[in-house]
């Protein structure tokens, strides 16, 4: 399978917004840009909510049929490893191989020697078209790159081979995820990661590196925009060069994880994509769930009461709901409103505090981040929550579509 040029990973915690999400892609097509949907859901999210990979596939297929979508679409086994991949294989065609836990583990002596032998020809000045200064490659550069990333790439190869024994290679898309590393990869490190990916026989179509700055869930980028722009463009150049150098898939492209709501970066990314005629996979997740809460709050009555209850319980269970996402949230508890205050809010106040509109004086990014990770509270409501979604489907769908198309697709591609 060949992944199209522009793709967006659309998470949907509760699997009820497939049609609203897909409508945003139809709107994009009508506006002149072809963007492909990739429904994604991780093993952790399935476990917390009580769903299965088959449910994500069913949601995607149903939305495609209902809206007569004629383009490609995919279902992503998000952030899987050897221990978690099996339930996804029959239902997914996109696999995000998460090997961040293996970064920094030393490779075997034989692997290290083979890596060095393969890449010693790059010692000295390595010129990559589009990068102003040649990369200075020394024996220490090779040693350090192998020490950081070679074992992780080998683990990715194990996962890929495991999948390919059950699913033909021409029926799947592979992404290698390195984004949860402690530090951003240098252009040289990304180059040698791709060298190792090729040597391992992984037909990667996307690579998710770590960028400088904070990519927190559901809020804007925190960091140096100019440094990000430099890194992003350099990574595009490295990928373009590595495709030819290592005979990687010609459509290999960058993947940006926790990419939703990074509004300050979208103009930068968009300019770079056009400049280099490059593709992009942007992975989003919990913003759809937040749009459900906004829709419920706007509906008032029992819908608002459920939204207030989710916040109240999330505050009470703060450590529990935040722990799985500790590396991708920054919440100042002193800036969170008291549950008693929120219980007196009307739907407009709740929505204004939650909706990602920095121009609104009532917007609270700490409130938004806590609710972003508080979805397990809604999951525990079971049928009561699902009934509220059905009762307020029109209002919620409007918010889901507008968020995806107006705030994400348009700012990136139009």
In short:
The chain is of the alpha/beta class and 414 residues long. The protein is built from 18 helices and 10 strands.
What does this structure look like?
There is one protein chain. 51% of the residues lie in helices and 12% in strands. By secondary structure, the chain is an alpha/beta fold. It folds into two domains: 280 residues, Alpha-Beta Barrel (TIM Barrel), CATH 3.20.20; 112 residues, no CATH class. The longest helix is centred in the middle third of the chain and has 26 residues. It is globular. The two termini are 27 Å apart. The relative contact order is 0.14. The mean pLDDT is 97.
Topology:
Elements (H helix, E strand, L loop, with lengths): L5 E6 L6 H13 L5 E7 H7 L3 H14 L7 E7 L5 H4 L4 E5 L10 H11 L4 E3 L8 E3 L1 H26 L8 E5 L9 H13 L4 E5 L16 H22 L6 E4 L9 H11 L3 E4 L3 H13 L1 H16 L1 H5 L16 H4 L4 H8 L10 H9 L1 H7 L1 H9 L1 H21 L1
Parallel strand pairs: 1-2, 1-10, 2-3, 3-4, 4-7, 7-8, 8-9, 9-10
Antiparallel strand pairs: 5-6
Helix tally? 18
Structural class: alpha/beta
What's the arrangement of strands in the largest beta sheet? 1-2-3-4-7-8-9-10
Q: What composes the largest sheet?
A: 8 strands, parallel, barrel
- Mean pLDDT value: 97
- Count up the domains: 2
Q: Level of helix content? A: 40-55%
CATH 2nd-level architecture of the largest domain: Alpha-Beta Barrel
Strands, count? 10
Q: Element order, helices and strands?
A: EHEHHEHEHEEHEHEHEHEHHHHHHHHH
Uncertain runs with pLDDT below 50, 5 residues or more? none
CATH class of the largest domain: Alpha Beta
- Could you say which overall geometry the principal axes of the C-alpha atoms support? globular
Distance between the termini: 27 Å
What is the multimeric organization of the chains shown?
single chain
Radius of gyration: 22 Å
**Binned strand content:** 5-15%
Q: What is the CATH topology assignment of the largest domain?
A: TIM Barrel
